[in-house]
Amino acid sequence: MSVRYGMAIDTKSCVGCAACVIACKKENNVPNGHSRDWIFTSTIGSYPELSMTIESRRCNHCENAPCVTVCPTGASYVGPGGTILVNPDKCTGCKACIAACPYGARFVDPRTGSIDKCTFCLHRIEDGLSTTACQEICPTSSIFFGDLSDPESEIAQVLAERDNYTLLPEAGTEPRHYFLK
Amino acid sequence: MQELTSTRLNPLVDPHLHVWHGEVALYLFLGGIVAGMMVVTGLLTLRKKHEEPSRAMAMLPLAAPILLSLGMFFLFLDLEHKLNALRFYLVFKPLSPMSWGSWILLVVYPVVILQAWTTVPGDVRDAVLRRLGRFAFLAKGSDWALANTRRVALVSMIAGASLGIYTGLLLGTMGARPMWNSAILGPLFLTSGLSTAAAFMLLYRLSDRERSLLGKLDMGLISVELILVSLWMIGLSTGSQISQDGLASIIGGPYTTAFWVLVVALGLITPLFAEWLEIKHGTVPGRSAALMVLAGGLALRWILVYGGQYTGWIESIALR
Description:
The complex is a heterodimer. Chain A has helices at 19-28, 66-70, 96-100, 122-126, 133-137, 154-161, and strands spanning 5-10, 38-46, 49-57, 76-78, 84-86, 107-108, 115-116, 143-147, 164-165, 177-180.
């Protein structure tokens, strides 16, 4: 079976330190005032019965990616391992993909006018590394990344063992970015 | 209690989407008028009871390529990476409405020019050919177009309808924006385009017969538009929670007053009533109702472009 990269965030151990956000900005030279990943915190309930969920969010690299479908030039495309990538040489900056993404994961790079987003650090993986920058920096080892189609991979095993969810499954985008309960 | 915090830095997405602005609304508005003019003038050409058009009516199709160029200029202004604009024409993506639109616009250009050529008065054609006499192919092309006036009109109607529907489907196929996500937007924008085109033509010095014809046509189109707006709202309001939230920006949300006053009252109901009075009393349609229709057509697109971006699934993500 072909490689299908995916990511899972352990919401039980993530402390929301945002080291993943900083590591991504440094690794990918993300422009000031923008981010490819971010920390989302929701606190629900009434004191003293409060519950907090912390999620490290980014592009969901959807199996059925609306951003790829709407792109008129083929700049947004499905890359190796099913990653959703942007070719800046083809991008006109029409922003249809930003409007089509229900997750708000894309932005315009003000330096180039092209669309930018998380790539699952594919350049690192193609260089032979096995981790993304956010995963490597995570002090609580809350980020799992790997080949979903390989049952022996760590991410496949952790997803098989623990309850998990994706964002907006009802949108029909089939995200490959999971959150462990 | 729900307290949500996000460290996301994305100025075009937070606090709600605002990637498309007035340039896109103007492009959709001008594209709609051009689409409508192509259909209406094509229809007038194909009418069996063809009578000699007034000079203004014969010259009006010349406005179409100018308005189209203006619209495409606004679209160009919206692009963030303008140097890559030609990329639209290096590939065709059958599932991308914007790709369809790019190629439809490429077809529309020569068609509107040909149609204008077949309708302008003979003395204008002769004057142009005299000036460009050294280009023999132009004279040949002119002869061909004049011999195929009805075919040109038919192609113009098809291309115009495609353009008009596309301007609505560009928004209507965005599943992530509940307010836009309705196939009704295709026929709604086409009908609005036809109506604004008739209104635009009524601004010129047409004959009384032409004014009456366009006034009656506009009245019918506004009635259809009111039905389509109602169907669009019924579709969203009886859909899932996300669809119902999609209507929030015009029912109680920030665009409520603008939509009901500028689009429904000023742009549809008032001109419909005015045109009905004109027909009832046998007077020739004036320009005030036409101006209201044009203002309403622009407001419809402006409010939908902005209002649709105000709606999204992001709120739902936050509240899971």
